[in-house]
Amino acid sequence: MSSPENGIRGIGSETLIVHGRDDEVIPMGTSLKLNTLIDNSQLHVFGRCGHWTQIEHSSRFNKLVMDFFSE
User: Taking Cα atoms as reference points, which of 56, 54, 55 lies closest to residue 66?
Assistant: First the structure.
C-alpha cells in the first residue's frame, strides 16, 4: 500500500471498495486491508474477474456503483 495507514483510517466518507477475485495486479489482501482500515466501507468482490471489474462485469459494476450513490 502506498498511502500511510493512519491517513486511510482517517477516511470518514462511506467508501465502496471493488475488487476482482482473479486480479493479478493488486492482491486481494490490499482490498481486505482497506476494508478493515476504513470504518464505513463495504467490499464487493467479483468472481471470475481480473483487474478491470468495470469492463469485465460492466453491467453489474454500474448497478453496484449506482446503488451505492443512490443510498
Answer: 54
Stretches in the chain below the pLDDT threshold 50: none
Identify whether 44 is a catalytic site residue. Answer: no
Q: What is the pTM of this model?
A: 0.93
Catalytic residue among 19, 44, 51, 57: 51
**DSSP assignment of the chain:** --S-HHHHHT--S-EEEEEETT-SSS-HHHHHHHHHHSTTEEEEEESS--S-HHHHTHHHHHHHHHHHHH-
Answer whether 38's CB lies under 8 Å from 11's CB: yes
State the Cα–Cα distance between residues 30 and 6, nearest whole angstrom. Answer: 15
* Cα–Cα nearest to 46, from 70, 64, 25: 64
